[in-house]
């Protein structure tokens, strides 16, 4: 039986249901992944910041992506880590903190969508106090209400469809033009560079698209709650872990700068 507490400011965070034997492996996995995200992404930011040869629009885009990954995961992973060893009955979060966590979770997708979506959610009266997710997002917040959330669902799904349609459409248009340019251009080196860059972008885009779509779909199927929780965490840590690795591997400039730094450290005399 669900506990009904109208407009309660203290919410219970359900989190992940992990057995005692799996708590430490799950904790270590998330901690190591979080440290990898911090080190790899901040390393990319530091490298781009200090190397003048990397002060170009493409590398500034990498820098922006890394900062976004660090901020997004720093708002999520520490909270999940802190609650892994806490019984579900003792996992509490203040409603306003939950709203801010949901806001920042969605902010990185699109700011305008977040403001309107969170605005619709805040207007709802709350009769439940259990967040059925490892962290707060908008879908979890409007499930606290006993009122009709039809408008919230329609708005969220409509915007998702529009956002994905425009995103996929622009990707198809862009890659079509790049392909046409490569077919008409006889420069093998230029075509190879374009293909390498495009394949990297496409790989990251598909990873983020798949990681983002799975939680959205599973939110509509309560019987798959545990799968949704896991996919919601993977949505943050998978792109955040792979972005610096994939971009770093495909960028010759970043390779060159790293090699120069490592060589300088090897030949630097010690006193």
Give an overview in words:
- The structure is a single chain.
- The protein has 271 residues and is mainly α.
- The protein has 10 helices and 3 strands.
- The protein has a 3-stranded mixed β-sheet.
- Helix 1 packs antiparallel against helix 3 (77-84) and helix 4 (95-107) packs antiparallel against helix 5 (111-122).
- The chain is globular and about 65 Å long.
- 24% of the residues are buried.
- The model has no long low-confidence stretch (mean pLDDT 77).
Q: Name the structural class.
A: mainly alpha
Helix content bin: over 70%
The sequence of SSEs as H and E is EHHHEHHEHHHHH
How many helix segments?
10
- What would the principal axes of the Cα set say about the shape? globular
Distance linking N and C termini: 70 Å
SS elements, strand count: 3
Overall pLDDT confidence? 77
Task: Please report which band the strand proportion falls in: under 5%, 5-15%, 15-25%, 25-35%, 35-45% or over 45%.
Answer: under 5%
Low-confidence stretches: none
């Amino acid at each position: 039986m669900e506990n009904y507490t109208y407009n309660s400011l203290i919410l219970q965070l359900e989190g992940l249901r992990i057995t005692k034997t799996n708590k430490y492996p799950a904790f270590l996995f998330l901690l190591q992944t979080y440290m990898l995200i911090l080190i790899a992404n901040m390393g990319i930011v530091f490298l781009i910041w200090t190397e003048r040869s990397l002060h170009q629009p493409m590398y500034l885009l990498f820098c922006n992506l890394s900062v976004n990954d660090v901020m997004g995961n720093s708002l999520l992973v520490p909270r999940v880590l802190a609650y892994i060893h806490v019984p579900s009955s003792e996992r509490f979060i203040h409603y306003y903190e939950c709203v801010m966590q949901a806001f920042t979770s969605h902010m990185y997708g699109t700011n305008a969508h977040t403001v309107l979506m969170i605005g619709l959610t805040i207007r709802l009266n709350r009769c439940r106090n259990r967040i059925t997710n490892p962290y707060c997002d908008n879908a979890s917040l409007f499930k606290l209400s006993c009122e009709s959330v039809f408008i919230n669902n329609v708005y969220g799904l409509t915007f998702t469809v529009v956002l994905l349609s425009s995103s996929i459409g622009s990707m198809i248009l862009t890659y079509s033009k790049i392909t046409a340019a490569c077919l008409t251009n006889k420069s093998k080196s230029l075509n190879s560079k374009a293909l390498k860059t495009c394949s990297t972008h496409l790989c990251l885009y598909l990873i983020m698209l798949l990681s983002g779509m799975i939680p959205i779909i599973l939110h509509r199927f309560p019987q798959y709650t545990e799968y949704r929780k896991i996919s919601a965490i993977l949505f943050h840590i998978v792109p955040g872990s792979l972005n610096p690795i994939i971009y770093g591997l495909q960028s010759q400039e970043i390779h060159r700068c790293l090699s120069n730094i490592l060589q300088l450290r090897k030949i630097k005399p010690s006193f």
